[in-house]
Amino acid sequence: MSMTAYTALWFAPFVLPICLYIMYTDMKGMKIPNHAVMALFGVFVVVGFITLPLDAYLWRYVHLIVVLIAGIALNAGGALGAGDAKFAAAAAPIIHLGDLRFVMALFAANLLAAFVTHRLAKSTALRRMAPEWKSWSSGAKFPMGMALGGTLALYLVLAALYGR
């Protein structure tokens, strides 16, 4: 992995709770709240400044812009929600560009696992534990925050364990 364990260990205590919160709110209400996205961005602004070399820190804002533009296009095409696009954009600067292929594979696996888990839970008695969650009755829509938040959290944990 290209991200250093040092950087991952700095990001993890702040980012992991935000990821869990985003996963929860997206499953409960099919929304990723703006305050959570702004908190994630704020973590990058502060922790990134502390842990990254200045040139790398500044270039990572380009990651945010590129992913935000792609997310807006995907949202306009109906491929994902606006909250998903904003979360992906706020998460993009945290991810080291050298780990992009790994993160994409991790996201693909996590998306499949989250989708299957959500659909199975929706069809079992587990649904009774949180009957008011909108994601249970959202039809074909899926709370992508489950996969997005899970991917970022797993990436940071793996980078903390196996980073350079």
Automatic annotation (TrEMBL):
It comes from the Bacteria. The chain crosses the membrane at residues 7-24, 36-54, 61-82, 102-121, 142-162. Coiled coil: none annotated. InterPro entries: Prepilin_IV_endopep_pep. Keywords: Membrane, Transmembrane, Transmembrane helix. GO terms for cellular component: membrane. This is Prepilin type IV endopeptidase peptidase domain-containing protein. The lineage of its organism: Bacteria, Pseudomonadati, Pseudomonadota, Alphaproteobacteria, Rhodobacterales.
